[in-house]
Fold this protein.
Amino acid sequence: MIKLIDITKKYGEFTAVDDISLKVKQGEVCVLLGPSGCGKSTTLKIINRMLEPSNGNVLIEGKNVRDFKPELLRRKIGYVIQYVGLFPHMTVGENIGIVPKLLGWEKVKISRRTEQLFTLIGLDPGFYSNKYPHELSGGEAQRIGVARALAADPPILLMDEPFGAVDPLTREILQTEFVKIQKELKKTVVFVTHDLEEAIRVAVRIVLMQKGRIVQHDTPENILAHPKNKFVHDFIGADRALKRLSRFPVSNIMREAPVVKSSDDLFKAAKSVDKRGFRFLWVIDENEELLGWIDTTRLIRNKEKKEDVITRIPVSRIAVRSDFTCKTALSRMLAEGIKVVPVVDENQKIIGEISLADIEKITEEVAHTWQE
Amino acid sequence: MAGVRIRSWISLIVIAGIFLFLIFNMSVWQHMLGTIFPNESEVVYPRAQLPQLLREHMILVLASSAAAIITGTSIGILVTRERGRPWLGIVSDMSSLAQTIPPVAVLALAVPSIGFGFKPTVLALFLYSILPIIRNTITGIESVPGRLIEAALGLGMKRSQVLFKVELPLSIKLIMAGIRTSVVINVGTATVGAVVGAGGLGTPIISGLVRENPAFVLEGAITAALLALFLDQILARTEQSLSRSLEKTT
């Protein structure tokens, strides 16, 4: 656990960080978010003593960081800086092995650990280990930067705009990968960014800062739903209801879907689900793969021929997976002009459905909120 | 990489071969200079042997350059440390300014206080050759991007480790370039030492100028030029192996 107590950092007359107290729980990703110059980076650097506070204390696991030599403290805290900062005169493998080497690990242990980390970040150790940083793409370099910070398996990770130097597409991939890795490793992470979308994607809790002070410290869902004042409201923007949807996985509001085999009596099936209050019935083939859907009201009313009633759908374009976000589900609905989309597993087998009405319920929570 | 290394070895051996051949074969000089200057009665400086002059010259150059390399790089490193930083501006201005003073002027000023001969010459050469070394050391270390220093410190390197594992390996090329320039210029400048009786390859040059015998001038000048080339090649090799070994320590 990291605890900041009454931290103030002054540069002459200018107060960069103004009396901040903050707790970051074990295994939590805490995002320091705010416009540039709000003191978020300064706060981060005070934790590993890259900067010394003018006032206040930092406790890690109850111990004051001042009681450690700075370099020994930092070897126990992973640090990912903006623009990566890989050393150009060392190979990628050597870059990753820096901290273990400083800690005096044996060569064999270092190379085994390096290999592990390559696998963790999804790069082939044989191919990348002896390359030099200038041979890497931006995304690869950022991955190596994270691997280097994780090398000695520190319990704490400080990340200062770690994905700032790559294009938006790569950034999103890196964020997703980071969330996946973090789920596995459960490090205590302090993550600095000015990008709200990034914060929403990776944070367990967000600390929104302005002019060296904490304005709101809460979960992303709550910050988006209940901005505390006008600054927060303006910072998160008018589309906050939409942004909030990316915090909710489809599995949260997924419900059971009525399914029928194409070889069964469709009319009978339609009648029975109609009674249960469903309008649409999903049709699967013998291999349990999704074929399309039936509008039950139309079927009951018109008694059309079986072949015509099934509306066939391109499953890969419409269906969502349970770990997709509600935002993705919504955009599929809007793109295809339908109100219900099927949820499938990796074998394209239907496991449920998600409806526009359910998504609206989430966004409604945001509707009544802070007003000027 | 291997190709470059082999080529630099070959040029080093070729230059060393020509050099040694000429030093110990005065008959070649006799023949060569006799052909160029058929009207001179004497074409080889008679009062001292070439190996003896070369030895004196080497001592002048090595003593002054060694002192300059050690002091120059140390000053360059010191003023780029956190504590030395207040001096950075002054040192870097001074080193540019001092380069504009001709070495002969330093000699002229040094002789009254230190006397004639070896000492004032080494002092003048030292002062003159320290400047490019200081400047290149400062430029080299300053050119290491700040984010790399931040990364090194953030990963838990001590200040000294940052210097030896990051700053020096990344600036060794510029530092060595300064040393090479300095030594090569030093070989030429050291001929001035003959004016105040320090000996060396300047002796036949000065004598040739006084006696209006261009053959003597050429004898000293060619040998000095070959010495400069030879030392430059040796330093080029040193630069390569130094940057390799610095990389290995990381």
Remarks:
- The first strand of chain A starts at residue 2 and ends at 11.
- Chain A has two domains: 2-237, 251-361.
- The first helix of chain A runs from residue 40 to 47.
